[in-house]
Amino acid sequence: MNHLTREQVDAFGAELDALRARVQADVGERDAKYIRRMIRLQRTLGIAGRGLLYAWAFPPAWALGVACLGVAKILDNMEVGHNVMHGQYEFMKDPALTAKGFEWDTTCPGDQWRHSHNHLHHTYTNIIGKDRDVGYGILRIADEQPWRPYYLGNLAYAFFLALFFEWGVALHDLEIERVTAGEKSWSETKPLVRGLVRKARMQMLKDYVLFPLLGGPLFLPILAGNALANVIRNVWAFMIIFCGHFPAGVAMFREEDTREESRGQWYLRQLLGSANIRGGKWFHVLSGNLSHQIEHHLFPDLPAHRYAEIAVEVRAICERYGLPYNTGSLGKQFGSVVARIAEMSLPPRLVDQRSQ
Amino acid sequence: MSIVRSILRSPLAAALTAPHGVDRYVELVHPAWSVRDVRGTVTKLIRETPTTTTLVIKPNGNWTGHDAGQFVRVGVELSGVRHTRCYSVSSSAHRRDRITLTVRAKEGGFVSQHLAHHAKEGDVLALSPAQGEFVLPALRPRRLVMISGGSGITPVMSMLRTLEDEGHDGDVTFLHYARSRDELIYADELANVNARVLVAFGTVFHPSHLSSINLERAEIFLCGPEPMMAAVRACGLPLHEERFTSEPLRPATDGGTIHFRRSRVRTGCDGKTMLEIAEASGLNPESGCRRGICHGCTQRKVSGVVRDLRTGAVSDAADEDIQLCVSAPVGDVTLDL
To answer: For B255-335, CATH number?
Structure first.
């Protein structure tokens, strides 16, 4: 999978370990201040957004409300929720900011996501058959997934997954396809369904019943505003997350190649299986710093706002070992994801013929 | 205020602020505001001695009061990290709108140094509800003897103040050991209380000190450094004890590999308590008094043997809850942490 010897891979891993230790030792007040500031911004935007939606009589204010609420949900899910639930701010010992204690503003229950994402996806990144983020169980995203006529709808499925991404993430954790295949028992799944129903009900009640009811005659505009904010968050999260592992040049792995993986090899797989997106400061914030997907996969529990600084060093290390470092603009990365989803919808022989 | 509080506590408010909850919003307006948690604002600082400060604290509406002698867990954020320690409430149980904590800056004590020297008016502290079994019996005894040493004076001072407020006219003896006159706190107040106050400077407890005190049917309350407590205990009298000011317990080294299962960390132990081992491994379990009193550090032990450092009792039960700060590993231990 690469040109490095075992010793070089170990040395590469040791350098990343040293980088990690250096950053870890510095984690403290700066990070606490950062996440508190981010939470304050997120909550303020959320309140402002919900308030502005009641100004339906003046449509630009309503539209601004939708935008504020959408951004609040994005910040909540990505820069705050995703990162807190990775344990990045565990050092603060604030009960409200522990990985176990945090719950985010989306239908997927935090505890289920922590299992599927923190444990499965981050451990088995891009291993076909193990990492359930590969295609989310509904898309064909890698050559290794055998083609079926069902995948002719690949682009359409992706489109709907983007619109309803929070539901995709939530249902994803139930592993329904493993239940129907008999690999997972229903009794194992039932508590997950119950947890999901409880969380989803809470989310729907708030966005589609209570806040609209508070609007009285404005029921529909409020409901529409909330729905739109959710869609904005869904599409944005989908784009960022799909750019993390599916742009051109990102490697997929076979289970048999990764069985006896050393720490250095694990780092290497995280590097080769992830891709970054270039952008400005606020672009990174709004992406939950998942625009630094490579750094996130190398160091999932370091405070994400540090990834930009860490990236400089990671890149230098990669250059020294002659390793690729996949990055590009959002347009380039997402364009290549869409192209890949389109290509994967066709039977492999058709694609091969065309490329010959 | 109570109407606002009941609205904020309503299921509707919870549903509208889901999934974060009302507190995550109201605390942005003022850090002491909460519909659930007890928090307190420092309103005044009294320098008792060069190393000791009394913090006068206005608790928020979730404070339900304390029984004389109880303690609170105090959470304070230093350099972005919340630290939790236990302090006895030193004020009377009848003053619910203001409570006092008296903190002596211990050498190398991160939190006590901060509270005693750097706390400011307006600081907000996270508090727990009052807890602890070292309390005045509800039916006040006619005869009480309070024996304290050093900063162990704080819980018995709360008892004394509570009895004062109640106009208790029984027989109260207050025997206190201070290192020197300069280190005696509450000196002025002690000179004016309705109790027999005996203060010994620079000496250690000796059974003969009790000879002038009528102990017949007396309830005896004891709080101080461990050697003093041991000396009093050796007299064989029935006692109410608070072990607060005793030093943290030190285990001998006989542990093996400690496995923190959820954190996926394995480590050795090197003569440390389970709490210290976890912290040395970069984990941040919740903790409080670090002396086995507050149960703030309780975690689930999955397997292995631990020794309770207070009693020496050894326990090998699987899936039991242990207090990390007073547990030492005996061989390999796995924790669900």
So the answer is: 3.10.20.30
